[in-house]
Amino acid sequence: MDIWGTLFATVVGAAIALLGQHLVKRAEHRARISELLLEQCAYLAASSSDFHNRVWEERVLDMNDRVSSWDVSAHGLASARLQILSKDRALLSALQELNNAGQQLGSYWRRGVVDEAEFTSRWNRHRIATEQFIATSGEVVHRRLAQA
């Protein structure tokens, strides 16, 4: 009976070790996804704020080519990464509003001649969308980190 007991204990010990390894790898994977999510959200928030500032620099400081030199492709890449990493509806909705508001502001500004009221409306929409995205992404990232 001692051999069977030893064999049983060995099998149980190995199963516990394998389960432990699986749980550790799963936790590491969740933490890595959370880190990637944080990076993309932070980049998008900073990129949108940079775009907002560039419009202001052109409008108020009469600086040239600030908006046209903004890295729209990097912003688009971060948006795509975020859509792949997260299926959170509130976050994706905030991202969509942020991108739509930015496109509306940018396309209107590049026309050259702008109506003050229309510009202010688009400017404020983009500012609010950026603030909402930051708040929503903060909630999502904190929730994921708490679960990791």
Overall description:
The protein is an all-alpha fold and 148 residues long. 86% of the residues lie in helices and 0% in strands. It contains four helices and no strands. The protein has helices spanning 2-61, 72-85, 89-109, 116-147. It is rod-shaped. The two termini are 43 Å apart.
Q: What is the distance, rounded to the nearest whole angstrom, between the alpha carbons of the first and last residues?
A: 43 Å
Tally of helical runs: 4
Q: What amount of the residues lies in strands?
A: under 5%
Rounded average pLDDT: 87
SSE pattern: HHHH
Tell me, what's the shape?
Answer: rod-shaped
Q: Report the oligomer.
A: single chain
> What are the low-pLDDT stretches, counting only 5+ consecutive residues below 50?
none
Q: Could you tell me the radius of gyration in angstroms?
A: 24 Å
The total count of strands amounts to 0
Range of helix content? over 70%
Tell me the layout of helices and strands.
Blueprint: H1 2-61, H2 72-85, H3 89-109, H4 116-147
Helix pairs in contact: 1-2, 1-3, 1-4, 3-4
